[in-house]
Design brief:
By secondary structure, the protein is an alpha/beta fold. About 45% of the residues lie in helices and about 15% in strands. It has helices at about 10-20, 30-45, 45-55, 70-80, 80-100, 140-155, 175-180, 195-200, 220-230, 255-265, 280-295, 300-310, 320-330, 340-345, 360-365, 400-420, 420-435; strands at about 5, 105-110, 115-125, 125-130, 160-165, 185-190, 210-215, 235, 240-245, 270-275, 310-315, 330-335, 350-355, 390-400. The longest helix has 19 residues, at about 80-100. It is globular, with a radius of gyration of 26 Å.
Length: about 425
């Protein structure tokens, strides 16, 4: 299913070139369809949101049922398993503790002439959290609620809104509602896809607009976020999930295969990659992929992903492996090698880095603490994980004394004259003259 090939060979080079250039724009059909949806919601508001929700998710949905009612939250609490509540509490505590370290402070600088400059850090007023439906609500993506909602709360966002597609009966999985309530979200709307993004971006009588939209979704959600970006802030344009594992001859093939399959089961487009210095490890990983695959509930999805986007590349050294990893700039990078901490300083581009054979990427998805919303498609070269800063904005602070302006006046006027902006220069000159 996945053959070992030398990275330096023709096939390996072709594979690496595809990886370096894997950023993809939405196809024109998706772009046009999303554009029409956005326009309909902008024009018809609630009626458009309701019509799309009925057509694709819940045929009997009524306008008054779009917002989750208080009694639905209460009922959800009674329907979830006590063991889930224990795990939820652990995950919340871990994610909150990690993200509290990300909070930025306002700061000031002063000069002897009385000038004060600084930066004022403030949260946005509102944020919209998109949570995918998860196979008609049967596989609730609780981790998405936590990874998006907790950083927003730490940032101090006053209004946090969650949108998620309902099932055919117009209901939301109780686990999602309990998770939302656990982190202080009580405004939840039962709508999804591009029309939910449109409602968050433009606002409707039922769903007021927000300032930031975050959360994963299908290609229509991603394209909708792309098209409203600028009107609102978004977290990132997410592509298919991806993992790259660097391994030497000390690595355990069964662990590597398990982690590759953990990515491959996400989506037929997911990329599960191994770069290894050991031909024997690569060969054994191939065997493990075959044997472990048969045990999976999403075996066909994983098989397709591995066949179309999987790779096992053989290199001569860890230096070469790390250099390729930096070029690829993967979403999830695992270092299943001797002394991974010694190689960490050489990693420049990765969404998240997992060190050691006992650190599966799945730990980062759920309870380790760091955010699992990460840059894909090579954008780890320029982007970071979602965090508290996603929900913060910064204002510059500038205060001059009369003495400070007198000292800087000549410099300001000189630069203004060079740029041909005489009013700029005059705004300084008039103050200097009055102060004489």
């Amino acid at each position: 299913m996945v053959e070992v090939v030398r990275a330096a060979g023709k096939e390996g080079q072709e594979r690496l070139e595809r990886l370096r250039n894997r950023f993809v724009e939405a196809d024109s059909g998706c772009r046009d369809a999303v554009s029409e949806i956005l326009q309909q919601v902008r024009q018809d508001g609630d009626q458009a949101v309701l019509e799309y929700t009925r057509r694709y998710d819940a045929p009997e949905m009524e306008l008054g049922g779009l917002r989750v009612a208080p009694e639905e939250f209460e009922r959800a609490r009674e329907e979830v398993d006590p063991a889930f509540l224990e795990t939820l509490g652990l995950a919340v505590q871990r994610i909150r503790t990690f993200h509290e370290r990300e909070m930025e402070d306002s700061w000031m600088l002063t000069r002897e002439d009385g000038t004060i400059t600084g930066r004022l850090v403030r949260p946005v007023d509102s944020a919209g959290l998109y949570v995918p439906g998860g196979q008609g609500g049967s596989t609730p993506l609780v981790s998405s609620v936590l990874m998006n909602g907790i950083p927003a709360a730490i940032a101090g966002v006053e209004r946090r809104v969650m949108v998620t597609p309902p099932n055919q009966e117009g209901l939301v999985n109780p686990a999602l509602l309990v998770a939302a309530r656990e982190i202080g979200i009580s405004e939840v709307y039962k709508t999804g896809s591009a029309w939910a993004i449109a409602a968050l971006a433009y606002g409707t009588p039922t769903i007021p607009r927000v300032d930031v939209i975050v959360g994963p979704g299908n290609q229509y959600v991603a394209e909708a976020k792309r098209q409203v970006m600028g009107r609102v802030r978004i977290d990132m344009i997410a592509g298919p999930s991806e993992v790259l594992i660097l391994a030497d001859d000390s690595a355990e093939p069964a662990f590597i295969a398990a982690d590759m399959l953990a990515q491959a089961e996400h989506d037929p487009q997911a990329a599960a990659l191994l770069i290894t210095t050991s031909a024997e490890v690569g060969k054994e990983v191939g065997k493990e992929l075959e044997s472990q695959l048969e045990q999976l509930s999403r075996a066909e999805i994983a098989r397709t992903a591995l066949r179309d986007h999987g790779a096992i590349l053989l290199v001569d050294s860890l230096d070469q492996a790390v250099a390729l990893a930096n070029e690829i700039a993967i979403e999830h990078l695992e270092l299943q090698i001797r002394d991974p901490w010694a190689w960490l300083p050489k990693i420049r581009h990765a969404g998240a880095i997992f060190l050691g054979s006992h650190t599966p990427e799945a730990a980062g998805d759920y309870v380790a603490g760091p955010n699992h919303v990460l840059p894909t498609m090579g954008t780890a070269r320029i982007s970071s994980a979602l965090g508290v800063e996603t929900f913060l904005k910064k204002s510059s602070i500038i205060s001059y004394s009369a003495q400070a302006l007198q000292q800087d006046a000549e410099h300001i006027q000189r630069l203004a004259a060079l740029e041909g902006l005489t009013a700029h220069g005059n705004s300084v000159a008039i103050r200097v003259k009055r102060g004489e």
